[in-house]
UniProtKB/TrEMBL annotation:
<feature type="binding site">
    <location>
        <position position="80"/>
    </location>
    <ligand>
        <name>substrate</name>
    </ligand>
</feature>
<dbReference type="GO" id="GO:0009073">
    <property type="term" value="P:aromatic amino acid family biosynthetic process"/>
</dbReference>
<comment type="pathway">
    <text>Metabolic intermediate biosynthesis; chorismate biosynthesis; chorismate from D-erythrose 4-phosphate and phosphoenolpyruvate: step 3/7.</text>
</comment>
<dbReference type="InterPro" id="IPR018509">
    <property type="entry name" value="DHquinase_II_CS"/>
</dbReference>
<comment type="function">
    <text>Catalyzes a trans-dehydration via an enolate intermediate.</text>
</comment>
<dbReference type="Pfam" id="PF01220">
    <property type="entry name" value="DHquinase_II"/>
</dbReference>
<dbReference type="GO" id="GO:0019631">
    <property type="term" value="P:quinate catabolic process"/>
</dbReference>
<dbReference type="GO" id="GO:0003855">
    <property type="term" value="F:3-dehydroquinate dehydratase activity"/>
</dbReference>
<dbReference type="GO" id="GO:0008652">
    <property type="term" value="P:amino acid biosynthetic process"/>
</dbReference>
<keyword id="KW-0456">Lyase</keyword>
<feature type="site" description="Transition state stabilizer">
    <location>
        <position position="17"/>
    </location>
</feature>
<feature type="binding site">
    <location>
        <position position="111"/>
    </location>
    <ligand>
        <name>substrate</name>
    </ligand>
</feature>
<feature type="active site" description="Proton acceptor">
    <location>
        <position position="22"/>
    </location>
</feature>
<feature type="binding site">
    <location>
        <begin position="101"/>
        <end position="102"/>
    </location>
    <ligand>
        <name>substrate</name>
    </ligand>
</feature>
<dbReference type="InterPro" id="IPR036441">
    <property type="entry name" value="DHquinase_II_sf"/>
</dbReference>
<feature type="binding site">
    <location>
        <position position="87"/>
    </location>
    <ligand>
        <name>substrate</name>
    </ligand>
</feature>
<protein>
    <recommendedName>
        <fullName>3-dehydroquinate dehydratase</fullName>
        <ecNumber>4.2.1.10</ecNumber>
    </recommendedName>
</protein>
């Protein structure tokens, strides 16, 4: 069983990007956290980041074709703008857990609108990198997988 973890624009800069807001953990740290959580729950983790909207759409389609168990998606700024990502998620039969490091409801009003939330199975925000691990545990629970 495979879980895709897909990250959107500017998340490659984690660790140095507004550290007071996003923290000091790098994207490599987030990936390591995801791989540890994946091992715990028996998932192979496919981990991606792109600054390009269409690339995110293609990975969502790929997860659908591959019959992935789930997708953990931090679409970053595209969360608030991308009908293409909404449509890609709607087109596949794979549950998507939307994750944000920050609490998008406690920031600028434009961040309260999420196109991803329209089609997400669940949403985790405001808990920093551990939100990714919680999302992977959540997918394991949804899939009825055993935890070791
Ligand atoms: C983010 C929140 C978005 O509003 C922002 O554009 C990001 C990161 C988060 O993880 O908190 O780039 O998705």
């Amino acid at each position: 069983p495979t879980v895709y973890v897909i990250n959107g624009p500017n998340l490659n800069l984690l660790g140095s990007r507004e550290p007071e807001r996003y923290g000091r953990a790098t994207l490599a740290d987030v990936e390591a956290l995801c791989r540890t959580a994946g091992e715990r729950h028996g998932f192979e983790i496919v981990f991606h980041q792109s600054n390009h909207e269409g690339e995110l759409v293609s990975w969502i389609q790929e997860a659908g074709r591959a019959g992935a168990t789930g997708i953990v998606l931090n679409a970053a700024a595209y969360t608030h703008t991308s009908v293409a990502i909404l449509d890609a998620i709607a087109a596949i039969a794979v549950p998507v857990i939307e994750v944000h490091l920050t609490n998008i409801h406690a920031r600028e009003p434009f961040r309260r609108t999420s196109y991803v939330s329209q089609v997400a199975k669940g949403v985790i925000c405001g808990l920093g990198p551990q939100g990714y691990g919680l999302a992977i545990a959540g997918l394991a629970g949804l899939a009825g997988q055993e935890t070791r």
